[in-house]
Design goal:
There is one protein chain. The chain is of the alpha+beta class. It has three domains: about 130 residues, Roll (CBS-domain), CATH 3.10.580.10; about 120 residues, Roll (CBS-domain), CATH 3.10.580; about 140 residues, no CATH class. The chain contains twelve helices and 22 strands. The strands form six sheets. Strands 1, 14, 15, 16, 17, 18, 19 and 22 form an eight-stranded mixed β-sheet that branches. A three-stranded mixed β-sheet has the order 2-3-4. Helix 2 packs across helix 6. The longest helix is centred in the last third of the chain and has 24 residues. It starts with a strand and ends with a strand. About 30% of the residues are buried. The N terminus is likely disordered.
Length: about 425
Amino acid sequence: MIDGSMVSTIGDIVLSDEFALLPYTSVLADVAKALSPVKNSAALIRGPKGAGIAGIVKVQTLLEHLASEGDPLTVRASSIMLTDLFRVRVDIPISKAVREITERKPDAVLVLDKENTFVGYLSAEDFRSLKQRIVGDSVEEKQPETIGEAVELRDEFRMVSVTERLDKVSLLLRRPSVQFVLAQDSKKGVQGILSVQQLLSIFSQKKNPNRETVKKHMRTNLLRLREDTPIQLAIETIQNRHPDGVLVLGMDDTFRGLLSPDDYRTLKGVLPKEIEHDGTFNTLLPYLKNSMSLKDSSTVVWSHNGSELIVKGGEMELDIIESELCLSIPVYCDQTDEQTVTIRFSIGAKLTRTSLVNRSLECHEIIENQWGLILIESIWEHVLTWIDSSVTKEIHEPLFSINSQGLLITGKNSNLQSNQEVKING
């Protein structure tokens, strides 16, 4: 386990654009229309005369006002918008941004480029992704296999009667944690589902919420899965059925909760990703670039004992020289200019699970002394994972070598005596 963490900067993430940008003169009806698309969770309101962004109107704030007071055609969005805005630049490390956002708890987080120009809005979903991408030491846990083991169902819904009016439903959906209502029949149980976005779409069509019922607008394509359903089967079933809502049942078939979109993304994240492998070293470099770059980030920040190292994993290069894997990675820190760290793993022609590597990394001594061992062990761990993916699951911890043509050779390990560590020379 590496003693340290890898996090990317804010500029490396792909913002989900879950917002609409409206002028200062917008009224509540304009906001309802802008937030009707499923992807939009908030509207950013420009200041007077277009002077930057002055505030934010979230779905729940809008619903609360639509249900309780005011004419949506005349009430200005600026009168209900929240104004505690926190601005972060694209070059701030994610770990620092998460810490400051958690402490401050602003109404909205705006992302600026290095010239302090607005480039995006950090939604709640983006913030959850940021926290998940802070990688640190972890204890190996049992891999979840079923829905019940993988997700902890949250109360992101409320139960209503199918005969309930939509103005009452608005009050139930005004809290940020509540995204759906489940429509229940007294004899038949849950019969349909209605989301926040559906409700906003109805309001934007200027229908009278006092006269519209849940039954008229609810969607009825419901999928019921038991909590002991294997994750792979659950995902395949959902993808094939495209349900409006997924209800999770207990072992006795009683209702346990709603599988929200966030829960579904959690299920998909649990499944191990297939590693591309064609039996040669051609796929090793793309795998290392992806692993060392944390998904879509070409540059990451490693933190260790109060020090930080910028690692350009997306610019890594690989050469095979006889029995050596030679990896070159551009890195730099605040005490050095950009350096190219070269690590040479000598695997040899004999089937083993070890590698000899020179402690000298041919780079600045500050980086070599502080980060050398961490870089070596981290990369070697990824190399082992890639090699292990080249054999069938029946072969546990295969032995490997490089032949005279520079190709990977693997063999079944029936009695592994040696460990799989990197032996440091020097």
